[in-house]
Specification:
Elements: H1 6-19, H2 21-34, H3 36-49, H4 51-64, H5 66-80, H6 89-98, E1 113-116, E2 131-134, H7 136-142, H8 147-158
Antiparallel strand pairs: 1-2
Length: about 160
């Protein structure tokens, strides 16, 4: 249905999109698949026009969701060290929730870091099964110890009668 008035045409198109969201999505997917260069060019142009707003939105999002930055940093670090595996921010949040938002070693609340049960430097993976939430203090003092070795050291510090090898 063609309109001579561009505003009427836009209004009709908006209404059609509201009535047919699945058809619109499928048409967009088809167009994007068949026109990858035009899509990239449009995205670059949009970014160039809205760079400052997009950067501000991105910074605000990352301030509100620090867990995403942590997961990305750990994945980068593991990739750089050629360790296998990776975990998503959603998996990290689920792991933190498992521990009630507390450090796995001392139970402290506050900002938590991803700690590897078996350190990457000792052949550990970066899979979520090898990750525990730890406070900065515990993570920094654990160094290259495994989870078992570190827990034994913590127990020995609490009870000096126990021996730590």
């Amino acid at each position: 249905m063609a309109y001579r008035d561009p505003e009427k045409q836009r209004a009709y198109a908006r209404e059609w999109l509201k009535r047919n969201p699945e058809k619109a999505r499928e048409a967009t997917r088809r167009w994007n698949k068949t026109h990858p260069e035009e899509r990239r060019a449009r995205k670059r142009l949009y970014y160039a026009r809205h760079r400052t707003e997009l950067l501000a939105q991105n910074a605000e999002y990352h301030r509100a969701h620090p867990e995403i930055g942590r997961a990305r940093w750990q994945n980068y670090r593991a990739r750089k060290g050629k360790a296998e595996g990776r975990f998503t921010p959603a998996e990290w949040l689920a792991r933190v929730e498992e521990y009630g938002g507390r450090c796995a070693y001392c139970g402290a609340t506050g900002p938590l870091q991803a700690d590897h049960r078996i350190p990457l430097s000792r052949g550990g993976t970066n899979r979520i099964e090898n990750i525990l939430p730890a406070c900065n203090s515990c993570n920094a003092s654990k160094h290259k110890l495994t989870e078992t070795e570190f827990r034994a050291r913590l127990a020995a510090e609490r009870d000096p009668d126990l021996q730590f090898d």
